[in-house]
Amino acid sequence: MAKNVYTAREAAEALGISLDTLRRWDRDGRIRTRRDQANRRVVPAREIARLRGDETNRMSARNRFRGTVRSVEVDGLLAQVEIVVTEPTRVVAIVTRDAVEELGLEVGSPATAIVKATSVMVER
Description:
Blueprint: E1 5-7, H1 8-15, H2 19-28, E2 34-35, E3 41-44, H3 45-52, E4 63-75, E5 78-85, E6 90-96, H4 97-103, E7 110-116, E8 119-123
Antiparallel strand pairs: 1-3, 2-3, 4-5, 4-7, 5-6, 7-8
Helix pairs in contact: 1-2
């Protein structure tokens, strides 16, 4: 039977990150955790699925870079969104202003860059 809530260590293992990284992500607001009755950090299964991209696997795009929005620069109808990804790289996407507003992108919010051919799409 699948679990609904994972310990911090189990969640870190499921995400392929260290426990220290999970704690840092929690402090930075990149992962949603809660506390159990003993005040231990626990992670809902839905949050693990969100971070692994399980909720969005309906797309054919396979190249996903999860990270945090570093900057949003809006100029007229277009917006440049810079995402610092968990891998040692960064992705910059030019998207419409409407997309930025619809996704609620702002500095510090979690986002995923999806790379397909020569285009970069952004999801949240």
